[in-house]
Amino acid sequence: MKYEIKPYTYHQAEKIGVHVEPSHTHDYKIDVYHDGDYITSIGHKDYSDYPSYIESHGKQYADERRRLYHIRHKKDMEKVGSRGWLAGILLW
Prior knowledge:
- The chain is α+β, with helices and mostly antiparallel strands.
- It has one domain.
- It is about 45% helix and about 20% strand.
- Strands 1-2-3 form a 3-stranded antiparallel β-sheet, with helices on one face.
């Protein structure tokens, strides 16, 4: 089953100037493109993300999951444009 990209992610993608599509890579949710060029795939399909948590558990729970994600992945999100940074922006 393909991941349904949430409006949150489309909005975040617009803010940073990238385009997102459902991933063609088996294990990931989203493929990220810039100016039509593939950048990377993000969001492992076996893990939830901020907009999914909002839908399933409500905003308060999602906000706590987001806070914990940012703590766990602080190092991954330091390099602007990296896979970790893109995941943090687009999915969290």
